[in-house]
Amino acid sequence: xxxxxxxxxxxxxMLFTETFxxxxxxxxxxxxxxxxxxxxxxxxxxxxxxxxxxxxxxLTITAFNRFVCIVLAGQYSVFHLRILIVKVFCHSSLMGIxxxxxxxxxxxxxxxxxxx
Length: 116
Prior knowledge:
By secondary structure, the protein is mostly helical. The protein has helices at 2-28, 30-33, 39-71, 76-79, 82-100. Helix 3 packs antiparallel against helix 5 (82-100). It starts with a helix and ends in a 16-residue tail after the last helix.
C-alpha cells in the first residue's frame, strides 16, 4: 500500500500546484507571479515535476508488482517484503527528485510569458 499512498500524494501535489498556483496566476496576472525568471515560479514548477516523475516511477513499480503477482506468483513473496517496498518507496521518491533537478539549472529553464 506504500506505493498507492505515494501515488495519491503525488496526485494531490499536482492538483494543488495546478489549481492554486495557476489560478493565482490567472487572477492576479503578473502582479502575483512577478518575473518569469523568479525563484518562486521555478520552485512551483520543480515541485510539480518532482510529483510527476515520482508518480511515473511509483506507477511503473506498481505495474511491475502486479506483473510479478500474476505471472510469477512463486516470486511474489520475495518482492513483497515490507522493508523492500519501503526502500522502493524511498528510491522512487529520490528518482523523481533526481529527474526534476535539471529543470532548476538556467540552461534548462523554459520561459513562460504572455507577451513578446
